[in-house]
Specification:
Blueprint lengths: L9 E5 L8 E7 L4 E5 L10 E4 L3 E7 L1 H8 L6 H17 L1
Antiparallel strand pairs: 1-2, 1-5, 2-3, 3-4
């Protein structure tokens, strides 16, 4: 099965846990099994959630601006995460 990669900047949907069905952005990679995610609302950047990759479903979208800013060490705000995720959620509603 050819699965999309889960990398920094990826928009993912939680498949398991209390946050099941919610959209998140991958903020960092911990190791081969875990990533750190946030959505700027319930999970803010100052309190990231550690989540197993197998419990996340990639949407196929990567926010390049987020990936670039994080790699350069620039600060990203929670309201920016919410805005990016709102745009993604609107794409799913339209489909």
């Amino acid at each position: 099965m050819n699965q999309l990669p889960i990398e920094v900047g990826s928009v993912v949907r939680s498949k398991a846990g209390r946050d099941q069905g919610r959209l998140f952005l991958v903020v960092s990679e911990v190791d081969d099994d875990f990533v750190m995610i946030a959505n700027g609302d319930l999970r803010k950047l100052d309190r990231l959630k550690k989540k197993r990759r197998k419990h996340l479903k990639p949407t196929g979208t990567v926010i390049g601006a987020l990936r670039d800013r994080l790699s350069q060490g620039e600060k990203v705000e929670d309201h920016e995460l919410r805005a990016w995720l709102r745009e993604e959620e609107e794409k799913f509603v339209q489909v």
